[in-house]
Write a structure and sequence with these properties.
monooxygenase activity; alpha+beta
Length: 88
């Protein structure tokens, strides 16, 4: 019996980093993913720690998404909520 499921391309040995912003205070806002770039955690690191982090994790650098790229209602990031200041 043949399986109709395709083999997953998830590889936990591959890591990704997407720089979202380099702040004036020297911190780097980034997204870090393991295996699939679409599943990530948001992080903030000092620039020196960011460089070390990328080397230690052998992370592939991804380009930042376009600022005006269309997104659906479910596609939001913590930084979006912080910029809108929920509750104001």
């Amino acid at each position: 019996m043949e399986s109709s499921l395709r083999k997953s391309s998830f590889d936990p040995a591959v890591t990704y980093v997407r720089v979202m912003q380099v702040r004036e205070d020297g911190f780097v806002e980034l997204e870090f993913a393991v295996g699939e770039p679409e599943l990530f955690v948001e992080m903030i690191l000092p620039q020196e720690a960011f460089a070390d982090f990328c080397v230690a994790n052998k992370a592939k650098l991804l380009s930042a998404p376009a600022v005006d790229a269309p997104r659906n209602d479910w596609e939001w990031r913590l930084r979006d909520a912080l910029q809108k200041r929920l509750g104001d």
